[in-house]
Amino acid sequence: MTEQLTFSFDALKQPSNKDCLPCIGIFGRKNCGKSSFINALAKSEIAEVAKSAGTTKEPSKYYTELENIGGVFLIDTSGIDDYGDAGEKRVLNSMEILNNIDFAVLMITGNLFAEPEKKLVSKFQDFSIPFVVVNNKSDLQEVSSITRSQVELAYQTKLVEFSCLIRSNLAELVYILQNLIPTSAYESKSILKNLIKKNDLIVLTSPERINAPDGQLTISQVEITRDLLENDCLTLFVKQDKLPETLEQLQPKPKLVILPTSTFSISEKVLPADMQLTTYGIVMARHKGDFERYIIDTPKISKLEDGNHILILQTSVDNTSNEFKEQDLLKDLLIKFTGKKLEFHVLNVFEKPFINLRQFQFALICGSFLLTKKQVTSILKPLTELNIPVSSFDMVNAYSHGIFERAISPFQAK
Ligand SMILES: Nc1nc2c(ncn2[C@@H]2O[C@H](COP(=O)(O)OP(=O)(O)OP(=O)(O)O)[C@@H](O)[C@H]2O)c(=O)[nH]1
Ligand SMILES: [Mg+2]
Known about the structure:
Blueprint: E1 3-5, H1 9-13, E2 23-28, H2 34-42, E3 60-66, E4 70-76, H3 84-96, E5 103-108, H4 115-126, E6 131-135, H5 145-155, E7 159-161, H6 170-180, E8 201-206, H7 219-230, E9 234-239, H8 243-249, E10 256-259, H9 261-270, E11 277-279, H10 280-288, H11 291-297, E12 309-314, H12 323-338, E13 343-348, E14 362-366, H13 373-385, E15 390-392, H14 393-400, H15 404-408
Parallel strand pairs: 2-4, 2-5, 5-6, 6-7, 8-9, 8-10, 10-11, 12-13, 12-14, 14-15
Antiparallel strand pairs: 1-3, 3-4
Helix pairs in contact: 12-14
Residues 28, 30-36, 49-51, 53-56, 78-79, 136-137, 139-140, 163-165 line the site of guanosine-5'-triphosphate.
């Protein structure tokens, strides 16, 4: 079964009933046979192929089924060697999909493995994306021993000979994909994965006064509600002051109640001790952040001392964003919670200026709800490699409000 889906980055981020399927990005220079490779895997002419270079102009997502793997999404891209204003924009568009793919195929031809390929591989490494290199058009030119050792030794990956024209070792290639696609690719991308199931009753609450602009819900509230509906959960939204009477009337009892951090402590006191509670911020930190690390590192804020340097990673360039409010709140929270004189440094992750990371005793990421988990993990990697504790605004917020343990408990193995 093969079908083309209209590509949209949002669609990739959104859970669907196909959200547990691997997403494979196909990269390489113009005309190296990326679209032909998709057709070879799908055994159907779904992607446009032409003799002239530059046929694929934007990422296109296709669904197909591969032997012994099952359903996968294949994402065709434009050439990584494109140039000029429009060409560079197309390259950037291709790079965007790194945020959402589980595995990559880098296609080369004519033993050409130079700057564009090396740059791309270093991006794969930044995003921790496993990959394989395919030497296409091997009916015209086979891979040389120099290229093979350049690729296989330097990157500890496989270089596979292939020809989209002849397709003789297609089964072998699919077998290689089957072995190299990480198991995480088959995990659900749902926000509340492993926590909810069909027909579970989940209660969402808002503060008495809805504080998002123009009476809107916050992005986290909207995304979590959509996730619950996608998973066929019974979803009830109530204002915080209506929570006790609502819960009294509800039968069966809800599986989980999600509260804003600001009202958690008030509600916690009136709700039964065995009721599973968490906050929107913690749900999103688990979905979009390095949650396991945050759980270990967040309590380390108690050990901060006078003169310690705290790095605040800013992830938005939008001046109207809540992120700046978050930063001020965070500074106040940390100073009040620790009672120490702390030095704060704010760094915009998109500017990447030279900065000596070793000077920091703690780092926090703010406003990362617009990023993907892969992006956040890649941003935090240089810090975690230096064993600098990292956390997010929401986790620190919960910790300094004294609600951390209870709010993370629904996500911890019983
Ligand atoms: N001889 C030979 N030709 C191939 C092979 N694979 C693809 N081609 C041809 O190479 C040309 C480009 O193929 P495409 O699949 O459009 O290449 P692409 O990488 O998608 O190209 P762009 O979208 O322009 O970046 C077409 O004429 C294909 O028929 C192969 O294995 N051997
Ligand atoms: Mg193409």
